[in-house]
Amino acid sequence: MTKRTARRDLRRPVLSMIALLGLPVLVVLPAGQAAATLEAPGAAPSSPLPARPRNCRAAPSWVDATPDSTASPAPGLVVRTWSGPGRDRVPLRVVAAQADTVRFSLSVAVAPRFGSVLDTTALVDRSGATFGVNGDYFESAAAGAVPRGVEVQHGVVLFGPAGTTKGVGVGTDGALHAGYVRSTGSVVVTGAGPAQQLPVTSVNTASPSSGIAVQTAYGSAQPRRGAWFVRVHSGVVVSSSSRDPGRIAGSDLLLLAPPAQRAALAKVAVGAHIEVRTEVRGADGVALTDAVGSSAPILTRSAIVVACTGDYGTGWRPRTVVAWDNRRAQVWLITINAMSRGASGTGVRGVTYGEAADLARQLGATDAVLLDGGHSTTAALRGGGGVHRIDAPATAGMRPVPDAVVLAPS
């Protein structure tokens, strides 16, 4: 079998899958032509790209201007797929959704409660989005699947670890931001007892190390350890005690204080009025309206800034990428996954960090970060009466995840 024939065979399941979704499909159409309804990428094609760092492998050569298929689910969004051989001839599939940030918004979809998980297809479906990929890295804990970074959805902080973490999301300015982020906020107390303002340092964490932690019904699965507990119902304090008041529900809030803040929180009297403000801000000071945890940048101003040596730099695994151009007018959600079964199949083989960064800039992006990869990597597209996985064979199992990054019409 020739190389050309082998690639054509890999493309057949891609074309049939997208065609079954009932979406407009353009086969073997140059990327520039398919993107005619989108603004041009931030970096002009004629602009020379910075050289790859030494030891960094280039993205697969078959990810070029001729995708296997191009679908336009809605004006302002184009989804392309490529298939071809990866390292050791393992068949790979690349899915890249490119969106105009004026007509499409990047947002976050989450499981029903903190610690719970759903397949990425279910997260995209319940959000009503058109396209989505898996979200943040996560770990197993007493509360279930706990993300490593923040979760902010439609301006509401669902999970905000104490201290500084890495994340990516959309700011109040409507632009994409990535880098170090921090949970912050305040508790303003008026009415009964002394008026005061206390700092909020985390949201739905297991226990505060400093400042005040806020727990909502969404995060009620988290184990709680605190020196003082204040329960708030409809903005009014209903209990203030050193004893945990138990599970909270609805719109109730629970304020937790570590030993250092016990005295201050203990001054909050039953009947006092409470106003709680929480937010996640980036290092540039912009508050984020939708955000999840991510890696550090792998691509910055078209330069690959990730290590290409060592265990992390040379491992070739499935990858999930969020990328954007220098004007932040275009955003890409990208997955790279293996198409075969077994020890070298879906969820196991893919590309290195450097190859993922090089791929993002080949597609026109200037900046990029990674989301969770490996078995978590999933791309989901709405069509044909539902949401379907398109980055891997339909028979490939999906790892349930706590959150997803999605694209929906603005």
Could you explain the architecture of this structure?
The protein has helices at 3-20, 31-34, 120-127, 262-266, 310-314, 353-362, and strands spanning 25-27, 69-74, 77-85, 91-100, 104-110, 131-134, 138-141, 144-147, 151-153, 156-159, 164-171, 176-190, 196-203, 212-216, 228-233, 236-241, 253-257, 273-282, 288-293, 297-300, 303-304, 319-324, 330-338, 367-370, 379-383, 386-389, 403-409. It has two domains: 8-107 and 294-409, no CATH class; 183-281, Jelly Rolls. The strands form four sheets. Strands 9, 10, 11, 12, 13, 14, 15, 16, 17, 18 and 19 form an eleven-stranded mixed beta sheet that branches. The protein has a nine-stranded antiparallel beta sheet with strand order 1-2-3-4-23-22-24-20-21. Strands 5-27-6-25-26 form a five-stranded antiparallel beta sheet. A hairpin with a 2-residue loop joins strand 9 (151-153) and strand 10. The protein contains six helices and 27 strands. The model is unreliable at 1-6, 25-37 and 39-46 (pLDDT under 50). With 410 residues, the protein is mainly β.
